[in-house]
Amino acid sequence: QHDIDLAAADQPAATTDSHRMEVVANIANLNDAQKSVSLGGEGVGLLRSEFLFLDRATAPDEDEQAEVYSSIVKALDGRPIIIRTLDVGGDKPLDYMPMPAEENPFLGERGIRIGLNRPSILKTQVRAILRAGKGSTSKVRIMFPMIATLEELRAAKEVVRQEALDLGVSNYEVGIMVEVPSTAVMAEQFAQEADFFSVGSNDLTQYTLAMDRGHPKLAAQVDGLHPSVLRLIQLTVEGAHKAGKWVGVCGGIASDPQAVPLLIGLGIDELSVSVPALPAIKGQIRELSLTECQNLAQQAVQASTAAEVRTISRGR
Ligand code: PEP
Ligand code: MG
């Protein structure tokens, strides 16, 4: 039984009607990268680079970052990787990056806003990522967190352009997290200027429903399968595909068996899941048909509540 599962784990995942889905992993360090390969991960859809910056007295310099990213890229042995730039701020402060207290940290200096306000941090990290990609057989992609406006994307891309020019690197890709409703709504415009999208459903749900994702009293209601969130994902896919760009999901719903058929049906191209979930999600995809998933997704976006969506998904 175990041998059979492991053999299947290494195979790509396609539906019964041959619709191929890319299944990659969310990781935080080298150990996760190695595990993801052994469990059949086809690459990394989200490296949360925060791990390198937490629990220390100073920020890691360019060389240290380049070395860590390179070791992770090597462990993936040619598989693609998306490295997300530092996503701290709000509720995740760093001792060596003093930030004024904010009334609404989740709506304040978070994600890419930190990188744009402190250019040396973003610039250093971008250089380290570009260096890890240089001379590697893997496709190393850069992704910005919490993008809410095109101005933010343009400013962040300009940093990459300058550093790539300086390092003599030309084959890079720049994508964005879609985790703010404005970005999902404007996906068609963003798709003109980003190489790929990855839906951060944890934050997208929090910002769409205006419910703190970590609030104990709201936990039961903050559901990424709420029809409003699914409609935003639908808009994102439509906008991206019109421009020939692809869309992944790296938020928690990508690892939720009740969400997987709906995401496939909505046209999502890549699922980035927690490392332990890799074999099960690939197994589930092999038992679904694209037509059935498209039917379910159509019903789900017409539903009125998250509970209804879950009933629809369970009833298939
Ligand atoms: C998300 O918001 O869905 C996401 C993947 O990013 P994080 O959970 O790290 O905020
Ligand atoms: Mg997020």
Task: Describe this entry's structure for a reader.
This protein is of the alpha/beta class and 316 residues long. It has helices at residues 2-10, 30-38, 62-75, 112-117, 119-133, 150-167, 181-185, 187-190, 201-209, 227-242, 260-265, 278-286, 290-302, 306-314, and strands spanning 13-14, 20-27, 44-48, 81-84, 140-144, 173-178, 196-199, 246-249, 270-274. It has an eight-stranded parallel barrel with strand order 2-3-4-5-6-7-8-9, surrounded by five helices. The chain starts with a helix and ends with a helix. Bound molecules: phosphoenolpyruvate and magnesium ion. Magnesium ion binds next to helix 9.
Please give a handful of descriptors for the protein shown:
316 residues, 14 helices, binds phosphoenolpyruvate, alpha/beta, eight-stranded parallel β-barrel, 45% helix, 9 strands, globular, binds magnesium ion
Strand content: 5-15%
Rg from Cα: 19 Å
Instruction: Give the neighbour order of strands across the main sheet.
Output: 2-3-4-5-6-7-8-9
Bound molecules: phosphoenolpyruvate, magnesium ion
Major sheet = 8 strands, parallel, barrel
Oligomeric organization of the protein chains: single chain
Number of strands: 9
Q: What characteristic shape results from the CA principal axes?
A: globular
Percent helix, as a range, is 40-55%
- Low-pLDDT stretches: none
Please work out how many helical segments DSSP would assign.
14
Distance between the termini: 27 Å
What is the average per-residue confidence, as pLDDT, rounded to a whole number? 95
Element-level helix/strand string: HEEHEHEHHEHEHHEHHEHEHHH
Structural class: alpha/beta
